[in-house]
Design goal:
The chain has helices spanning 2-9, 25-43, 77-86, 98-101, 108-111, 118-131, 154-161; strands spanning 14-18, 49-56, 64-71, 93-97, 138-139. By secondary structure, the chain is an alpha+beta fold. The protein has a single domain, classed as 2-Layer Sandwich (Alpha-Beta Plaits). The chain has a five-stranded antiparallel sheet with strand order 4-1-3-2-5. Strand 2 and strand 3 (64-71) form a beta hairpin. The longest helix is centred in the first third of the chain and has 19 residues, at 25-43. It is globular. 31% of the residues are buried.
């Protein structure tokens, strides 16, 4: 998945889960933008960069939660909770180092569909994209990086993460049929 590889190039240091982020994409977008502005203000522009994905709550209550990959030198749950509550999100937050949780977790609804048939998997992906405003991931300005660590766009980070020099190509012998 190029998106997960692009996230890896950005070298996030924390995975954050924010609760009760909204019921509709416009509400989630507004709350998350306000949260990111509050974190920039608290940690400095160079002290905070993040990308996130929105998930429906499994309880079926209509609410969402956000999985956020953040790059910050320091971060504690109290600060994250304070800023989340201030912008109207839930009190429940989880902050873990990226080493504890890994990079692919936020994409699990679309990356882990092996136990679903084709139609179910397609519906899962469509639902994920719909709740995320038509895309897989959203990033703050300055989050995405290229292979050299320079700021770039998500599109360029995906392209950079798909460097053909990293690809292993296995050629199969021709068969006479």
């Amino acid at each position: 998945m190029l998106t997960i590889r692009a996230i890896a190039l950005a070298k996030p240091t924390f995975m954050i889960r924010l609760s009760l982020t909204g019921e509709t994409w416009p509400e989630v977008k507004r709350n998350t933008q306000q949260f990111n502005r509050a974190m920039h203000k608290a940690l400095g522009h160079d002290g905070w960069a993040a990308c996130y994905q929105v998930h429906q709550n499994p309880s079926g209550d209509g609410q969402t939660h956000v999985h956020m990959y953040a790059r910050a030198d320091r971060l504690d749950a109290d600060l994250v909770q304070e800023k989340a509550i201030k912008v109207g999100m839930g009190r429940e937050v989880h902050v873990q180092s990226i080493q504890e949780v890994g990079l692919g977790y936020g994409m699990h609804p679309v990356a882990d569909t092996s136990d679903l048939d084709h139609d179910e998997a397609a519906a899962e992906v469509k639902d994920f994209i719909d709740i995320n405003g038509g895309t897989y991931v959203h990033g703050t300005r300055g989050f995405w990086r290229d292979r050299s660590g320079n700021p770039t766009t998500l599109k360029a980070a995906r392209r950079s993460s798909a460097n053909p020099d990293d690809w292993t190509v296995q050629y199969l012998p021709k068969t006479d049929s």
